[in-house]
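Suppose you are handed a protein chain with no further information: no name, no annotation, nothing but its sequence. What can you learn? This example shows the usual starting point.
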Amino acid sequence: MAENANAVVPASGTVHWIGAGLSTGSGLATLCDTADRVRLWHRTEERAAQSLSAHGLTGRAEPRAYTLPALTAELAPGDIVISMLPAPEHAPLLATCVAHQAHFACSSYVSEAVLEHVPAATAAGIVVLTESGLDPGIDHLFAHSLIARAQREIGAHTAAEADLTSYCGGIPAIPNDFRYRFSWAPAGVLNALRSPARYIENGAETTAARPWEATRIHLVDDEPFEVYPNRDSIPFVDQYDLPPAWKPQTFIRGTLRLSGWLDAWQPVFEELRRDDDERIAALAQDLAARYPTTDADRDRVVLAVTLDVRTDAGRNWSGRYLLDMQGDAQESAMARCVSRTLALGVRKILAGTLPPGLSRAAETPERSEEWLAELRQDGIDFRMDSTDSNNEKKTDGS
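A reasonable first move is to predict its three-dimensional structure. Written in structure tokens, the prediction is:
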């Protein structure tokens, strides 16, 4: 264990990137520029080598065949383990990291299973970086920044009503009949739709047992999309530090889809209503075969986070961040956004600027502004617009 429980274990300079799926992109290359040594672990050493070749990284990172025992044999104190594996595999991997004093990073939401290991990680001087991708990740940065900007204009102690919506989606750049492009495993997409969504609407907590049934039209720069709530938005009222004096009337974190998605997916929803695990698993395999992601595909990522604040005295402030990016022949927009954000966080672990224990991409408004500035430098383009009750409009960014 670390000699000082309050001190972070110094980074060794070695990074283990585990998994080379659809979200692995140029962030891996930035770490090859920064870290002393990078190892890419995949299902086989050959697949890892092929992935390195595809990213132009042959000779700059070491291919490895991943098993937990194989990784454990190569872990040293201060190493950084990046998990691009499915979320259920994070907790056992984190437990191994704690046992070997290695730092841990992923782009996924914090699960209860991961939280169980955080006290031991903190005591061991280990950084546990989570929610540092696109969604979750950049969406958190946008929300923290908007709330901080609104507080400067409105005042944190001013009685007000607030509406916050955060919608993100990976969609095909050229719309297809299915109105969707899989940017992660179809089984994960289907199971997410089976989970109830909790959010605030008209000032009251609301639950949608079937999230797609709460789909509505959402305009982004006059372009219509379809959006629906997902997961549990309620804890983010506190996580985003929304001032207690501001009563949330609308608070929704959700998913964005192309217009026409709801109609195109009706056969899928019919199967989801049956709630038969075997049939849904078979459907996921069928969708993967019918709608494969190919090298010729181009994806588009749209992330729109909006905050409207109305004071009891009649003053209004509105702000919106918009990220709208299209993939290219080198990498998908999804891989670029997820991997570069995650790599930014890992560079901070390498530099020793993150404390032991649990961290997210956005913990404070100050850190959010810092990360957003660095992401811009890393080629993640977005813009921020705001207006106040005097109809003064401000635009920040490209």
